[in-house]
């Protein structure tokens, strides 16, 4: 059984590494990692923490001019790879342009698609773009939906997908956390800090422009309290990085740091007093580790952390961000009450369930090397 695992971005590499390892541990299964070229350096760096590397890397131009060009280049690149190497199954993860193009290329070629982290849906009719469009589209091409939570499985059932096509696997990000736990962080940008540490990330497309500026303005005001430090892990996208530099580089209690290695970043999430983020993966990780979390979005397709009490959904209004953080810093008991590890995202063994389901479902596919 030959399985092509398609990764393009940092979260895909982190969340599919455990799946690649679990598949490779099974006799008679070959698992190839194909890197779409969406964020090749990041994807390779994250895979390396799991002792993995891409078996194939699509050669995209260094900066494509928007989602349509990116998706179309990846679609044709993956079509060629599928025709050349003929996997029996293609695995995609999440909601990126890579996952969408990979699923579509497989569907066009008649190769079954496994969707990891399937069934995430925003609770209201807003459809955060482009992620929700991608994941809803991918569902249409998917033979096996690996739902990370009960809610995600229910969402798929409600959309009419057959129970036999849905595996309630857990989220593989919890497996990734477990696997990297023994690694020692390479460096700690804030080892000397003694006061409350706020870890901030913001990069989602829906946050670009006014919301991002409001987040930066809120960080500036919070830093002026002089009793907390803000570590802002700035996304390298030039539009975002320049705004953060313009608005915050003269602010002594805000440290603008470049993206961190996975063990280093998780070390920061563990030790942070509070995490502010719009990232999907960081929402899951912080909630699972029990680090209080304010979600800088108007809606989330990961409500489990909010329901567990570890997370609050606060949006991107400057006043609301400042008031929400102040309320927690000024009331340590409320903050302490949010330190509840959320168990809903999984038990750390999702990848094994996914690998077992793939091996069982496609057991009659050709033997490795059998052509
Ligand atoms: N992450 C990391 N270093 C960083 C920031 C994030 O390793 O400096 C990891 C984080 O732990 C999570 C993933 O990257 O597993 C999230 O990626 P991102 O926020 O880019 O994507 P999203 O989860 O929103 O799709």
TrEMBL record:
<dbReference type="InterPro" id="IPR003331">
    <property type="entry name" value="UDP_GlcNAc_Epimerase_2_dom"/>
</dbReference>
<feature type="domain" description="UDP-N-acetylglucosamine 2-epimerase">
    <location>
        <begin position="22"/>
        <end position="358"/>
    </location>
</feature>
<protein>
    <recommendedName>
        <fullName>UDP-N-acetylglucosamine 2-epimerase (non-hydrolyzing)</fullName>
        <ecNumber>5.1.3.14</ecNumber>
    </recommendedName>
</protein>
<dbReference type="Pfam" id="PF02350">
    <property type="entry name" value="Epimerase_2"/>
</dbReference>
<keyword id="KW-0413">Isomerase</keyword>
<dbReference type="InterPro" id="IPR029767">
    <property type="entry name" value="WecB-like"/>
</dbReference>
<dbReference type="GO" id="GO:0008761">
    <property type="term" value="F:UDP-N-acetylglucosamine 2-epimerase activity"/>
</dbReference>
<comment type="similarity">
    <text>Belongs to the UDP-N-acetylglucosamine 2-epimerase family.</text>
</comment>
